[in-house]
Specification:
Distance between the termini: 25 Å
Mean pLDDT: 86
Helix content: over 70%
Shape: globular
Largest sheet: none
Structural class: mainly alpha
Number of strands: 0
Strand content: under 5%
Oligomer: single chain
Length: 144
């Protein structure tokens, strides 16, 4: 399933790139750095994770499964924050490649870090701080 998802994503990305280059895109492509979750999502994702630590047996398994499913959008938001934080850095491509390779190799630990970064975005406004630091959205490459 993971190999299918990777291949499908690669083909979709290549197709989108071709459509954009030919000027036939109906709208501009989405950018990682702009991905955002609504504020109500944070408690919805945190409550099952907390319940998983306290619920015994099958209820704990159900809560941990639900927490893992709800963590996926947080990981994507964490990736969005990472894309913004690396704007304007000289080794941006290498940093992002390291994050993505780390995510492929060490899925759970890196995924937890990215989910934590996605949660921190709700409270600390990491993207806003990074943009105020001097990076501008126009600096990001088109593959972002």
């Amino acid at each position: 399933a993971i190999a299918f998802a990777v291949v499908t994503s690669a083909y979709a990305s290549a197709a989108l790139g071709g459509v954009v280059r030919r000027g036939r895109a109906a709208m501009r492509p989405a950018r990682w750095s702009e991905a955002s979750l609504p504020l109500w999502y944070a408690p919805v994702a945190v409550v099952p994770a907390l319940a998983a630590g306290f619920a015994p047996g099958d209820a704990g398994f159900l809560a941990s499964s639900l927490a893992m499913m709800l963590a996926v959008p947080l990981v994507l938001q964490g990736l969005a924050v990472t894309h913004v934080i690396t704007l304007g850095r000289p080794a941006r491509t290498a940093l992002l490649a390291g994050v993505y390779v780390g995510l492929l190799v060490f899925l759970v630990p890196v995924g937890l870090v990215l989910a934590g970064r996605g949660l921190a975005e709700f409270v600390l406004n990491l993207r806003g701080r990074a943009l105020a630091r001097g990076a501008r959205p126009g600096q990001s490459p088109p593959e972002d």
